[in-house]
Write a structure and sequence with these properties.
single chain, mainly alpha
Length: 70
């Protein structure tokens, strides 16, 4: 397997994140925020934890932290 995961593998990871409840973060959120983007990108941004807006929309960096990435 290559170092870059394939899109189907990323979909499987996304599905697992969406239904994970193994820690307090999963117990207290509306939905998982697995990430999105090009699976072959050479750069990745990793956030500490989803904020309120990310939790509500299920998308990363849509709240105040995301405005810094514009």
């Amino acid at each position: 397997m290559s170092l870059v995961e394939s899109a189907p593998d990323l979909k499987a990871i996304s599905d697992q994140v969406a239904r994970c409840k193994q820690c307090k973060l999963g117990e207290s959120t509306a939905r998982g925020v697995p990430g999105e983007g090009n699976p072959h990108a050479s750069v990745m941004f990793i956030g500490e934890a989803p904020g309120f807006y990310e939790d509500q929309q299920g998308r990363p960096f849509v709240g105040p932290a995301g405005s810094l990435l514009e």
